[in-house]
Amino acid sequence: MTALTVLETGPLATIQDRGRSGQAALGVPGSGACDPASYALANRLVGNHPGASALEITFGGLVLHADTDLTIAITGAPCIGVPLNAPAVLRAGEVLRFGPPRSGLRTYLAVRGGIDVPPVLGSRSTDLLSGLGPAPLQPGQTLPIGCAHNPMPGVDLAPVADPPAGEVVLRVTPGPRRDWFTDAGWTSFITQTYDVSSNSNRVGVRLDGNPLERARDGELASEGMALGAIQIPPSGLPVIFLADHPVTGGYPVIAYLTAPSIPACAQLRPGQSARFSC
Amino acid sequence: MRFLPAGDSALLVELQTLDEVLGYYAALTADPPEGVIDIVPAARTVLVTAAPQSARSGAEKQQAGAPSVSLQQLERALRAVVPVAGQSSGGDLLEIPVVYDGEDLQDVAELLGCSTSDVIERHTGEEWTVAFCGFAPGFGYLTASASWDIPRRKSPRTKVPTGAVALAGEFSGVYPRESPGGWQLIGRTDLRVFDQDRDPAALFHPGRRVRFTVADPG
Known about the structure:
The structure holds 2 protein chains of 2 kinds. Chain A folds into 2 domains: 3-144, no CATH class; 168-276, Cyclophilin-like (Cyclophilin, Beta Barrel). Helices cover 9% and strands 28% of the residues of chain A.
């Protein structure tokens, strides 16, 4: 039975869960929700299993029609026109319209019971880099909803701050190839204010700023990359790896985001300012 | 062996040679340390990721099935790993039938200073081992005992077809699906090295032995 029909998708809306862990040695990226904290909260608010699939909505614009009565929760970037950080009931026939977010980039919609599409390699996540999992949402598509297994948590509202609209500070630890950069390069990395490039996506956040000075030239043999790796390609400008990043990469990793900074990084908008702090 | 930091819950183990990587990876996967959730071998390194300590609640940790460990505990466990000799994990030899009609076959022959039939003979004549995977789901970097050293194409193709058999550097590979690529194409196979609806989806996994054969025409 279908339970939600997609009327409009906005720039990008995908189905996401916790991703495909443990298969990186086969070349399968992790994928999953870019902002894992908002995703987890949305599922908790409707009493879903922590790995249930939800929708990840990039910069609003999604319009959904409820085919049946549903319990939902919306978290992450606060879109105009929809309830936030609280469970809500959507009646059959109602239309849910996500306006542009007041701040942040990615909004999560959990439906009680989860989005019930077939898993691919153990996950229902759309992986835009490798093409695994369901395709991004399309207008006219219907989304089946699974059965609820757990009781509702009895939470009316989760007190969560909106993603900041101004400069965001991302905490880092030195990465495996810190020594490929001069001390001046490292200082430049942690003191300058970068602009988030419009060329960012679920694979990575690209930053514009002053190129970093390298201590050594030459090529690095490809090596494994984990979530939050900050690669410095020959341009000298950082690329921060998000959920759909490749499992290996050939450019030196100067630093890693700390785990709590990953959701903050996933909410950065093109044009927003970001800075690193050690 | 060096242990390099890779974020809150991973360490990058750096080794001297690809053989050492294969031996270390084989030992690690045979008896993974407590808390390890992902192991990614590459050309000179093995990335080892443990369950994150701070990011998950107790209930979620239980569901993930992996207890969390500190990076200090992880490094101690990784230092204690004794690499095993020998590259391959044993098991079945995967045969890959190849039609050797790749667009770069002639170029590769010229690079090696031999005929195209010599290239085919060399490619089919030895046993290859999947050293590591990456680039795309199911893409394996295969090495052989003889030293291959093939430069990549000067400008990568925007579309390499599914099943293309290729060479680059010391490696051979099979493109699991259509994608851009800069490797030299020497042939093609109908064998699907990655199929998300099959179990296992990926035919290549680190340590697997592979032999290329000349496909029966027609």
